[in-house]
Amino acid sequence: MSSATLQKLHWCLMIIADQLSEIRIELNSSQILLGQLTRGAAAQAASVTQLQVRMDAAEKQLEDVHTETAGGPSLMELWRKVNRSESLQEKVNTEMESRLRAGEDQLDHLQTERSGQISSLESRLTGGLNRTADVELRLRSTETQLEHLEAHTAGKSFSLCPSSPVPSLWSLRTLSCSALEVALRVREEQLEHLDSHASGQISSIESRLTGGLNRTAGQISSLESRLTGGLNRTADVELRLRSTETQLEHLEAHTAALEVALRVREEQLEHLDSHTSVLTFRLNGTEQRLDELQTDCAVRAADLRSVSGGLTVAQEELQVQRAAIAAAVEELNTKGGEELKVGFSAGLTDSGVVGPFDQETTLIFSKTVVNVGLGYNQSAGVFTAPVRGFYFFSFTAADYLKGYTGLHLYRNEEPVFFSLELNDHGGYASTCSSMALQLEAGDRVRLSLPASYRLYDDSRNFSVFSGFLLFPL
């Protein structure tokens, strides 16, 4: 068989392999899409259940808020008690002030009255003392006159003798002295009587004054005791007033806290109402989307059944082609048994998403499927040509998000090919490219991912790098 025939056969094998890869990728994409739709429907059902649970919780909170709000009469009762306490306190204060003012007025009146009585007694006592001084002065004057009269009488008696021829004159003198003595005794009796009368009056005035002073002192003591009692009662009232004011402050603070809590509950209630409205709107939208997804799932299931039927036919055709390819390969191996065999095929990874990176990065296809001739280094992701020859390379890249995906094919450090694919529908998408290169012994071939691009691969080998030697030169 000629080299041209072998080359055509290899090209046919490559085309069939590409078609088989595309069919497998489409089948995997359909299965993944079906799984996603199933999971999405389950997630939507779970979301609806959660929304119902949250709606029940919100309704319960609303009932609790209404129950707490219904406690408003107790707050009004507290306000009424506070108002009654304030009015009672004002009445007590007014009564105590009026009684205190009345006591003070009465005390002032008693003090004024007692002051007048004391002033009157003092003036009367002063008058009595003045009259007593006048009497004493008159008494001393009379005593002085009496002494002068006695001295004059004695002088006259010595100058006269008993044998005097004038007896009538002596008798007259004697009678005059007797009259004077009688008058003197009368005056002395009158003075004694006046003295005793003045002493009695002074004693009476002193006793009356002492009694008045004692009564005044008793009344003052009584008033002081009443005033002390009033002050004590006022202190008790002030203490009760302070206690009532403290209770009132506590009640006001508690009332303010209740008002704040009530406002917070009202805000929470408004928030719950708005949140409930939003949840209701979202629930309606979710139910509508769920209906649409169910319809879409039914359509996709029908499409999947159609694709499965076409895939079965394609698999049957592929098996026929593979049998023909196997026969052709066997024939080639039989005829070219002495030729060098070099070929490899490797998957990217099992971890899922690869990239995006900040800079262009060499891809390491670490899942080696076949590596005949050991030209591929799975640790570095680089194929090294063992001999000078004509080589064929192909690769498949896949992703499932919207955006660009693509690969650079490098020979040594020279970019020789760039494959670009736009995923504008957001599902699984793949791109396949191939290229034949003439390599010298030692030339290296690798694939790199541009910056900000990404790929996807898992155990199903969505992204694969393959290459083999067509013929040496």
From TrEMBL:
<feature type="domain" description="C1q">
    <location>
        <begin position="337"/>
        <end position="473"/>
    </location>
</feature>
<keyword id="KW-0964">Secreted</keyword>
<keyword id="KW-0732">Signal</keyword>
<protein>
    <recommendedName>
        <fullName>C1q domain-containing protein</fullName>
    </recommendedName>
</protein>
<dbReference type="InterPro" id="IPR008983">
    <property type="entry name" value="Tumour_necrosis_fac-like_dom"/>
</dbReference>
<dbReference type="InterPro" id="IPR050822">
    <property type="entry name" value="Cerebellin_Synaptic_Org"/>
</dbReference>
<dbReference type="Pfam" id="PF00386">
    <property type="entry name" value="C1q"/>
</dbReference>
<dbReference type="GO" id="GO:0005576">
    <property type="term" value="C:extracellular region"/>
</dbReference>
<dbReference type="InterPro" id="IPR001073">
    <property type="entry name" value="C1q_dom"/>
</dbReference>
